[in-house]
Specification:
This protein is of the alpha+beta class. The chain has helices at 3-11, 22-39, 61-72, 74-77, 137-140; strands spanning 13-16, 40-42, 48-50, 53-54, 84-95, 102-105, 110-111, 122-127, 130-134, 144-149, 160-162, 177-179, 186-189, 195-197, 204-214, 228-229. The structure holds 2-oxoglutaric acid (AKG).
């Protein structure tokens, strides 16, 4: 096992710089600006509000292309299953005006196509019209999250804080570590890693958060039809 692989295994996360280059980032900034515009909603008094993100971006071709691009980066590919499916892409943004604190938590839900009854699967919910369920931990342990950062992210603009090793049940420490990521960089993490983020004090923070799984993972139901599947003809 390489040192990096050992880190990922033990700490539950690893960061790669320069996954998306400068020119592609400029294009992404434009895409993200469009998303922000699309997410603008009005409250009952007509005042513009902005949601803190959305969870179903895989409907967009450019997002599917990005899932392919990120998972094709050889540094990242070594941490992903060969037979790959991307279940979900979330967009999370923070600005000084649209600001939110995320308490430490684990990501326990996955999207599925339709409801089923199976031991160990529960906590059904609908998010933005899509069905989510909490699978047994053995399933969640197989998933990998890739978080692509559009701008440099540090302590003042909402970098994630994690509890290293907390994806493994045996961890005793609760000490948080800040995970800064450069623009165009990707943080890979296990969904069971305890993570959260603070409100930002300056600037903005835009993150595209992809959830990858092994395509051949044996689940009692079906992954969402809109999932991205690697090498699908
Ligand atoms: O992007 C963040 O700061 C945390 C978002 C997150 O992990 C979540 O909503 O599950």
């Amino acid at each position: 096992m390489t040192e990096l692989a050992q880190n990922f295994d033990e700490q539950g996360y690893v960061v790669f710089d320069g996954v998306v280059g400068k020119e592609a980032l400029i294009e992404l900034e434009e895409r993200v600006a469009e998303l922000q515009y699309a997410l603008r909603i009005k409250d009952s008094s007509g005042k513009a509000l902005t949601q803190a993100g959305t969870r179903n971006l895989l409907r967009k071709d450019w997002v599917r292309a990005l899932a392919a691009y990120i998972s094709g980066d050889l540094r990242i590919a070594q941490f992903l299953p060969q037979s790959l499916i991307c279940l979900q892409c979330n967009y999370f943004f923070k600005t000084v005006d649209v600001n939110w604190h995320v308490a430490l938590h684990q990501d326990l839900s996955v999207p599925v196509e339709s409801q089923f009854a199976s031991k160990g699967w529960g906590g059904w919910s609908l998010k933005e019209g899509e069905l989510f369920v909490q699978p047994p931990k053995e399933i969640i342990k197989e998933l990998v999250i890739a978080r692509l950062h559009i701008e440099n992210t540090c302590a003042t603009n909402g970098a994630l804080e994690v509890v290293p090793g907390s994806h493994k049940a045996s961890v005793s420490s609760t000490e948080r570590v800040l995970v800064p990521v450069e623009a165009g960089g990707v943080m890979l993490m296990r969904p069971l890693l305890m993570h959260g983020s603070r409100k930002i004090r300056s600037g903005t923070r835009n993150v595209l958060h992809f959830v990858f799984a092994p395509r051949d993972l044996n689940i009692p139901g079906q992954w969402p039809q809109g999932a991205w599947v690697k090498n699908k003809a």
